[in-house]
Amino acid sequence: MKIYTRTGDEGKTGLIGGRVSKDDVRVEAYGTVDELNAFVGEAVIRLDAKRDEDLIQDLTEIQHELFDAGADLAQAGKSRQYKVSAEMVTRLEEWIDKYDAECKPLQRFILPGGSPGASALHVCRVVARRAERRVVTLCAQQETNDEVRRYLNRLSDFFFTAARAVNARANVSDVEYKRGSQVFRQADAGKNEKDKQ
């Protein structure tokens, strides 16, 4: 099988249900999800294989689910069978709670950084937010799986929490934003940090 097909040389690509321009909103949405998947792979190789074994397993599962999300977004035809479900969103929330329990309470906004693994996960967080924005645009214009939008929203929260957990495991402090005062009360620290994104 040849890798190149020449079928996209005129600026068109195939969807499940037809061909569209490569800058179509649907292609932009699943292309950004694919980009996110690549960054997750980059984050995995920056983690400690032993210390972060549980997180690596979760991230590998997320990579499979991002592939599922891309397949859902690529469906433009009338017959649709989606893969991303509400159960996946619920499970992400459980993982967020699990990793958040390893972190100190937030007092200030934090900057992306700390350890190499945490920095890579913060990149995943911001790319997940961009993917979510692309899917919001798609949902407003065309029919698609709304669960993908919810999944990406929760996924960015997961990456934020996982980045903090990786720093905690490495005994590296989060990089606090110093140009402001303490903005979080202990009870609502995580909620407010997520809401700002």
TrEMBL record:
Catalytic activity, EC: 2.5.1.17
Pathway where this protein functions: Cofactor biosynthesis; adenosylcobalamin biosynthesis; adenosylcobalamin from cob(II)yrinate a,c-diamide: step 2/7
UniProt-listed InterPro entries: CblAdoTrfase-like, CblAdoTrfase-like_sf, PduO-typ
Tagged with keyword Metal-binding: no
Annotated GO MF terms: ATP binding; corrinoid adenosyltransferase activity
Domain of life: Bacteria
Top-rank EC class of the record's enzyme: transferase
UniProt KW keywords: ATP-binding, Cobalamin biosynthesis, Nucleotide-binding, Transferase
Record domain Cobalamin adenosyltransferase-like: where: 3-165
Catalysed reaction equations from the record: 2 cob(II)alamin + reduced [electron-transfer flavoprotein] + 2 ATP = 2 adenosylcob(III)alamin + 2 triphosphate + oxidized [electron-transfer flavoprotein] + 3 H(+); 2 cob(II)yrinate a,c diamide + reduced [electron-transfer flavoprotein] + 2 ATP = 2 adenosylcob(III)yrinate a,c-diamide + 2 triphosphate + oxidized [electron-transfer flavoprotein] + 3 H(+)
Keyword Acetylation: no
One Gene Ontology term from the biological process aspect of the record: cobalamin biosynthetic process
Stated family: Belongs to the Cob(I)alamin adenosyltransferase family.
Subunit structure: Homotrimer.
PANTHER family: CORRINOID ADENOSYLTRANSFERASE, CORRINOID ADENOSYLTRANSFERASE MMAB
Name this protein carries in UniProt: Corrinoid adenosyltransferase
